[in-house]
Amino acid sequence: MIKIDYYMSHGSPWTFLGHNRLGTIVERYDAKLNILPVNYGDIFPISGGLPVTKRPPQRQKMRLQELERWSKFLKIKLIPQPKFFPSKSQLPSLVIIASKLKNTKKEFILANFIMNALWVEELDVDDEKILSVLISKTGLDPDQIISFAKGTECREMFDLYTKNAIKNDVFGAPTFIIEDQIYWGQDRLDFVERHLKELTKTQ
User: Fold this and answer.
1) What does the pLDDT average to over 150-165?
2) Which domains does the chain have, with CATH numbers?
3) Could you give the 3-state DSSP secondary structure of residue 32?
4) Strand partners, 35
């Protein structure tokens, strides 16, 4: 089975814009998706990146215009400057990891609920009460998932995913890695699909 390593952040609007399209592509080619929430706060200093609020005003202005363009082009509702951005907690990422480690098969849809809450509904996804509602929407037990997310195992896995991201030359969100090829950005999903198409021809 073809494997895709999906390095992502719930706090990235670009990740949100590409998330469900990636899911459609994965289903189309019967690929195995390995969702990997990582800490870009650790990745940016090493890779030359900056958090949005520390970027030059020219780049911040361009980012907002591009988000508007892509949102309209993809017909995906998105608020470029939501009320609770940037997300200040790592708990939403840890919750996604908890769902994954529990083998619930719900981590992908849970990630989408979290990002939709932040980028469309303008909810505070750092709030445990909000997270509990989002987890409940997947049919999972929110108390169990949040308790596990706060534990050592999820934290260690989050750190490991981040270290592996740095080792694999990841510098932005979202990043998709197939074999030795790195695809950065939701606008590279066409190339991701082409890669998968080529691989299916050889299997």
Assistant:
1) 98
2) 3-202 (3.40.30.10)
3) strand
4) 6
Q: Taking the model in full, what pTM does it have?
A: 0.96
- Asked if residues 186 and 30 have their Cβ atoms less than 8 Å apart, the reply is no
Whether the Cβ atoms of residue 31 and residue 60 lie closer than 8 Å to each other: no
Look-up: residue for tokens 């990841």? Answer: 170
Q: What is the pLDDT of residue 61?
A: 97
Q: Which two tokens stand for residue 190?
A: 């066409």
Which position has the token pair 């750190």?
159
How many Å separate Cα 196 from the centre of its chain? 20
Q: Around 62, how many Cα atoms within 13 Å sit in the side-chain half-sphere?
A: 5
Q: How many residues does the chain have?
A: 203
